């Protein structure tokens, strides 16, 4: 008799295999497996991973926002002290890049480059009633129409590291001019659209400017 962890792990591996080979969702593959082995159990951690695997089309795409968000959620379990976090968790500081074809976001006040477009972890906007549950239904509908995300939720960037270590939540300040850009919370925060994002590293959209400098670099290439 195997121990429960072993049973759960092998059931998860088999489920992942069925999902990929038979092109099934997690639920379908799990039902199929249970039809053959009714006593099979997969623990919640594996279920979460398998659902993520489904979202990513049965591939592990290390650059996908879903994967990055999932990895960030695991950090608080693995490093409850929030010390000695793995280096690769932090996106490269755009100041350390010679050039990038990615969209850049700069501090509106001092123009320092803060993060790249690829660092934004998009989420599906939440539905109004969660955030505005205390309001009357008619109001809720009208509010929902203008519901928008007023912040970018991004992966942590290298310049944030000193602010993030050992602290559960706090402000995010521009590393150059110290103006307030947003906030972070390892246990998550609610976006203005009502969606909870865990953990949350949010930058207010009105504190940064989007710079699409793709054209400038190609102009330079032509003239050189
Ligand atoms: Zn949102
Ligand atoms: Zn600044």
Automatic annotation (TrEMBL):
Alphabetized UniProt keyword annotations: Hydrolase, Protein phosphatase
InterPro entries xref list: Dual-sp_phosphatase_cat-dom, Prot-tyrosine_phosphatase-like
Gene Ontology MF terms in the entry: protein tyrosine phosphatase activity; protein tyrosine/serine/threonine phosphatase activity
EC number: 3.1.3.48
Enzyme class, spelled out: hydrolase
Domain called Dual specificity phosphatase catalytic: residue spans: 5-54
GO cellular component: nucleus
Family: Belongs to the protein-tyrosine phosphatase family. Non-receptor class dual specificity subfamily.
Name recorded for this polypeptide: protein-tyrosine-phosphatase
Organism per entry: Scyliorhinus torazame (Cloudy catshark)
């Amino acid at each position: 008799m195997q121990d429960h962890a072993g049973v759960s792990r092998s059931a998860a591996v088999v489920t992942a295999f069925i999902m990929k080979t038979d092109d099934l969702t997690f639920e379908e593959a799990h039902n199929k497996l249970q039809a053959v082995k009714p006593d099979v159990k997969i623990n919640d951690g594996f279920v979460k991973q398998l659902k993520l695997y489904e979202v990513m089309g049965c591939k592990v795409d290390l650059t996908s926002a879903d994967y990055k968000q999932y990895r960030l959620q695991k950090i608080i379990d693995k490093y409850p002290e929030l010390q000695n976090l793995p280096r690769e968790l932090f996106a490269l500081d755009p100041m350390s890049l010679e050039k990038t074809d990615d969209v850049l976001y700069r501090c509106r006040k001092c123009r320092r480059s803060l993060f790249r477009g690829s660092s934004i972890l998009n989420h599906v906007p939440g539905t109004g009633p969660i955030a505005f549950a205390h309001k009357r239904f008619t109001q809720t509908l009208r509010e929902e129409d203008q519901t928008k995300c007023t912040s970018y939720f991004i992966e942590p960037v290298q310049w944030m590291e000193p602010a993030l270590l050992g602290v559960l939540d706090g402000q995010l300040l521009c590393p150059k001019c110290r103006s307030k850009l947003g906030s972070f919370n390892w246990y998550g925060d609610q976006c203005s659209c009502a969606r909870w994002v865990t953990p949350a590293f949010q930058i207010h959209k009105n504190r940064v400017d989007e710079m699409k400098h793709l054209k400038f670099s190609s102009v330079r290439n032509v003239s050189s």
